[in-house]
Amino acid sequence: MLPAFAALTLATAAAGCGGSSSGADTVSPGADAAPAKTGYPLTFDNCGQKVTFAKPPQRVLILNGTSVAEVESFILLGLQKHILANAQSYGVSDEPSMIQAIKSLPTGGLTMNKNFEVPAEQVLAAKPDLVISHWSGGFDAKKGMATREQLAAAGITTLVNPVNCAYGKPTATQAERTRYKNASIESSHDFLRLLGRVFDAQHKAAEVTGELRRRIEAVRARTAGKAPKKILIAYPGMAMMNANGLPAVWTGGVADQVLKAAGGVNSFAGLAPEAVSSINKEQLATAQVDVLVVGAFQPSEDPAAEARKLFAQYPQWQASKTRSFATVADGVFLGPLNAVAVEKLAKAVHGVG
C-alpha cells in the first residue's frame, strides 16, 4: 500500500459532507479554485439534461458501467454514507485498501442483466434520490435500463460522469464528443470536484485533487529527461472486448496520459480507445514493446502467468527478451487512482516512484 494514499484514504473515510447553504447555485467542472459552500438549490446542465439538487442526496444508487471510477470517487471524498446501493466492483485495485472499502458498501441486492447493468425495475424499486452512471448508455431503454426521463418522472435525479456524455448517446453534441475524445487525468479530477459541489464537500474535493495532482507532478519531475519507454497495456481478462479474442489493449485518453506521466509512451500511441476492439495479432507482433503492463480485471486472474504467455507468443518484443513487465488494475482508467498507477509504472519503467 502506498503510504501517502493510505493516509488520504483514512482521512476521507471518516469525513462526512458539509452542511448546505441557501440560495441558487450553478456548477461547471474546472481547475481547482478557492472552494466555497454549495448554495442550494444547485442547478446545472448534465449531458443536455437540467438537474437540480435541493440538498445533498441521501440515497445514491451507482450503476455498473464496467467502471469503478464513480464509487472510488465517493470513497475518496468520504461520501460512503450517502450510498444506498453500489453496483461497481472489480475486486482488484491498484490501491489495495479500495478493495475492502468497496466490498463494505451496500449493494441493495442489485443484480445485473445480460448487458451487465442494473435493470430498470430494480432501480425504480430501490427508490433512490440520485442515480449515477459512468456513461450515457447506462440510461438506455434498449438495453433494459431506466431512462433519465423515466427516472425524472419518478422524482429521481440522474447524473452521468460528464466526460462520458457522448459515450452511449447517439445525439451527443460536438462539444460532448470532443470532451469524450479528450478524456484525461484532469477528467478524473473534474468528477471529484463535481461530487464536491453536489454534496457540499468541495473543501475535501479541493484537498484530494490537489494532493493527487502534486503526486503526479512529483513523478513527472523525476522522470523528466529520461528516454521514454514503449509500453503496451494489455488486459487478458477483458478479451471479450476484442473481436479477435486477444487481450484488450488500451490506448488513448487517460491511459496514454498515465504512461506519459510515468515516463513512457503507449506502443499504440495515436490510436483511439475504440481500437481495443480491432487490434489483431499482426499489430501486436510488430509493436515496439519495451515494457509490458498486464492489467488485472478480476481477483482470479494471475498477471504474472499472463505476462509469461504473452512473452512466449511475442518473443520479438524487447520486453519479452528482458522479462520486463508491471501490473495495474483500475489506475489507468478514468477515476481517482491515476496517481497510484503513475507511481507504480514510473517505478517499474525507470526505477523511480
TrEMBL record:
Stored Pfam families: Peripla_BP_2 (PF01497)
Protein name, per record: ABC transporter substrate-binding protein
PANTHER family linked to this entry: IRON(III) DICITRATE-BINDING PROTEIN, VITAMIN B12-BINDING PROTEIN
Occurrences of domain Fe/B12 periplasmic-binding (ranges): 62-353
Protein family according to the UniProt entry: Belongs to the bacterial solute-binding protein 8 family.
Matches recorded under PROSITE patterns: FE_B12_PBP
